[in-house]
């Protein structure tokens, strides 16, 4: 589903953020990506979203080389990838319903579909009673649930989460990770960047460690992955 073939990314400043990354993530996997600040994790996500182009190497999503994608096909490709960030990125002047609905409106979904789907998403993330609330009326954990609902409302096959629990207390962090696990069990491929070692140890998933732009380990339950 996601394949990186010897990917390098050097920024125009000369900083070399990724140095020959080879990676294969299968459909339906749940993968943690860990590594210290500046190791290249966010750069990797930006390459997958085609916000950046690799300096060299190839990236395939669903067997398609995304570097070769025509410009007019990029929006459709991005629609297949839901994203959540550490800082939630909700629109502060819109309520929860409108924040989620907007993601559907921009892809041309009908008002009827939106009226049906938004409540389903709110139920999925456990916020059925918060449709009318504004972001500043919600806890951090609740805001991240809204961001997750928004990321998933168009049913993308892939979800990327960049330090989704970075601003949350341990209880909320664990709840968001459990939710990501549920979403994965419903069939979405989930890739999570995190610093939360406790959660990573507890969840027993595949863990890819990046250091200075290089994958230094790729393990599940202490066993090295060799795919
Ligand atoms: P991480 O997400 O693991 O903290 P990043 O991918 O954000 O790491 O950054 C990797 C390296 O690339 C760092 O040295 C960072 O300073 C550098 N970097 C990130 N974004 C840019 C940019 N837009 N221009 C130049 N250098 C960048
Ligand atoms: Mg980062």
Q: Architecture of the largest domain, CATH level 2?
A: 3-Layer(aba) Sandwich
Based on Cα principal axes, name the global outline: globular
Overall residue-averaged pLDDT value: 96
CA gyration radius, whole angstroms: 18 Å
CATH fold group of the largest domain: Rossmann fold
**CATH-wise, what's the superfamily of the largest domain?**
P-loop containing nucleotide triphosphate hydrolases
Number of domains: 2
Strand order of the largest sheet: 6-7-8-3-9-10-11
DSSP strand tally:
11
Q: What does the secondary structure layout of this molecule look like, with pairings?
A:
Elements: E1 2-10, E2 16-25, E3 30-34, H1 41-48, E4 56-61, E5 64-65, H2 74-79, E6 81-85, H3 96-105, H4 111-124, H5 140-152, E7 158-162, H6 170-185, E8 189-193, H7 197-203, E9 206-211, E10 214-220, E11 223-224
Parallel strand pairs: 3-8, 3-9, 6-7, 7-8
Antiparallel strand pairs: 1-2, 1-4, 4-5, 9-10, 10-11
Helix pairs in contact: 3-4, 3-5, 4-5, 5-6
Residues 11, 13, 15, 17, 35, 37-43 line the site of adenosine-5'-diphosphate.
Structure write-up:
This protein has 227 residues and is of the alpha/beta class. It folds into two domains: 121 residues, Rossmann fold (3-Layer(aba) Sandwich), CATH 3.40.50.300; 65 residues, no CATH class. It is 33% helix and 27% strand. The protein is built from seven helices and eleven strands. A seven-stranded mixed sheet has the order 6-7-8-3-9-10-11, sandwiched between helices. A four-stranded antiparallel sheet has the order 2-1-4-5, covered by helices on one side. A hairpin with a 5-residue loop joins strand 1 and strand 2. Helix 3 packs across helix 4, helix 3 packs parallel to helix 5 and helix 5 runs parallel beside helix 6. The longest helix has 16 residues. The radius of gyration is 18 Å and the shape is globular. Magnesium ion (MG) binds next to helix 1.
């Amino acid at each position: 589903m996601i394949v990186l073939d010897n990917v390098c990314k050097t920024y125009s400043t000369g900083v070399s953020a990724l140095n020959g990354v080879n990676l294969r993530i299968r459909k339906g996997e749940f993968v943690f990506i860990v590594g210290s600040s500046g190791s290249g994790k966010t750069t990797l996500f930006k390459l997958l979203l085609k916000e950046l182009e690799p300096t060299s190497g190839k990236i395939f999503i669903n067997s398609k080389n995304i570097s070769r994608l025509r410009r007019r096909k990029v929006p459709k490709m991005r629609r297949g990838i839901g994203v959540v960030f550490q800082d939630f990125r909700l629109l502060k002047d819109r309520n929860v319903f409108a924040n989620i609905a907007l993601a559907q409106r921009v892809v041309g979904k009908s008002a009827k579909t939106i009226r049906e789907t938004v409540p389903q998403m709110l139920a999925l993330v456990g916020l059925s009673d918060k449709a009318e609330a504004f972001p500043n009326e919600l806890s951090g954990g609740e805001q991240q649930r809204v961001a997750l609902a928004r990321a998933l409302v168009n049913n993308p096959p892939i979800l990327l989460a960049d330090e989704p629990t970075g601003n949350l207390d341990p209880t909320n962090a664990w709840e968001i990770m459990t939710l990501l696990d549920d979403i994965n069990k419903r069939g979405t491929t989930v890739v999570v960047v995190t610093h939360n070692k406790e959660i990573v140890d507890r969840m027993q998933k595949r863990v890819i460690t990046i250091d200075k732009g290089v994958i230094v380990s790729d393990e599940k339950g202490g066993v090295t992955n060799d795919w």
